[in-house]
Amino acid sequence: MSRKIIVGAAQLGPIAREETRRSVVARLVELMREAKTRGCHFIVYPELALTTFFPRWYFPTPAEVDFWFEREMPGPETQALFDEAKRLEMGFYLGYAEIAEESDGTHHYNTAIMVSAKGDIVGKYRKVHLPGHREYEPWRAFQHLEKRYFECGNLGFPAYRAQVGGHNGIFGMALCNDRRWPETHRVLGLQGVEMSFIGYNTPIHYPQVPEHDHLQAFHNLLPMQAGAYQNGMWIVGVAKAGKEENCDLLGQSCIIAPTGEVVAMCSTIGDELATASCDLDRCKEIKDNVFNFALHREPQYYRLIAETKGAVVPR
Ligand code: ING
What we know:
By secondary structure, the protein is an alpha/beta fold.
């Protein structure tokens, strides 16, 4: 018995500050059409896939910030993507900046959705681990103001039963910095997730520790390969890549098996599709054995993980 689904990692090259959503959606549709010719059932786009990575700049007014957000999904510019997905019977994951009107007011999130081959939104995730800083910091070559523009997600790390390629599976989502934190993958793993989608925008230059710049590719794969293996799940990591408004973003979009092996990877820093046939049943090789949670975990000793924010060091 196997539950093979064919998945596409749809990496995007740079999106210029002036590039319209309509123009970006045309690029997304192009990648979706290529995915169809390659037999894909599902395609994964990057984080904040509709615009340039705007947290690299300081915007003084709320109106200038809100310009980068979507109030509707699908909205006027993104309906074409949903329509094409329905026509091609292609599910997709899409990262975007979300303005949400909730009972207690208006909120701003760094969001991702999972959309079925019928064009229905079957899952939503709002980024929990927000990197960067809140105030303008002039010493930086570029800002990273995610803590200023987004609120911490209020949905946790939900898992979804959904159908992809005619097979039922359990899917999860994360966004960029989330992939660096083992808690992200484990909370999904503890819900039986068999495949997670993670879009990212990762500058190669890390201003606080520039001597780590040459390690960005290693630090991209390391946590995702570990997360896949330690939770017995497929992980599809997809970059917005290339020199975007003079900021070099890492590529290396990839599909990782539950064994932790990279089975497909992009080799350019432009718009590029990497695909793989992923058998969801292969998760059992790991989930039923080396990481059989019910058999081997000892949560009575893990309380610090959930009970404290910072480290509790011995006196
Ligand atoms: N970007 C980066 C990421 O976590 C970063 C921020 C870069 C953190 C390099 C640490 C090192 O991949 C986003 N958008 O989270």
